[in-house]
Amino acid sequence: MSWQAYTDNLLATGKIDKAVLYSRAGDAVWASSGGLALAATEISGIAQGFDDPSHLQSNGLHIQGQKFMMLRADDRSIYGRHDAEGVVCVRTKQTILVAHYPATVQAGEATKIVEQLADYLISVQY
User: Fold this and answer.
1) What is the dihedral of CA 13, 14, 16, 22, to 10 degrees?
2) Which chain positions lie within coiled-coil regions (predicted)?
């Protein structure tokens, strides 16, 4: 399966409206669906936030110029919310998944889908 199929499959669930897959360092886009594109400073902030979330905690999580309140940040997952929409970022062995869900979707539904994809990628050494 190509990398593009992973982001397309996230959108096909109906729970995610935009998704992008980066290299673990955040320096290369491997696939993108739904028009999600992050500025270099946004993806580098996310990549660094997995190891040290203090900057995200104090300044918020930025996705396509929009500030999201950070709800969770650890060495695997970063969750953010803006009004009723949100973002889920998950780091695997070789990738960073970033997925946006619209206001019509419950956070738990979107989170479960993205985390399951991350579990699969980890299980196949990605």
Assistant:
1) 40
2) none
What's the whole-model pTM score?
0.94
Contact present, 98 and 17 (Cβ < 8 Å)? no
Say how far apart CA 95 and CA 121 lie, in whole Å.
Answer: 8
- What Cα–Cα distance (Å) separates residue 49 from each residue in 15, 57, 99? 25, 9, 16
Identify the structural domains of the chain with CATH numbers, from first to last: 3-123 (3.30.450.30)
**Residues in the chain with pLDDT < 50?**
none
β-strand partners of 90: 77, 97
Task: State how far the alpha carbon of 2 is from the alpha carbons of 6, 30, 41, 67, in Å.
Answer: 7, 9, 26, 31
SS3 45: helix
pLDDT in tens, 98-110: 999 999 999 999 9
End-to-end CA distance of the chain: 13
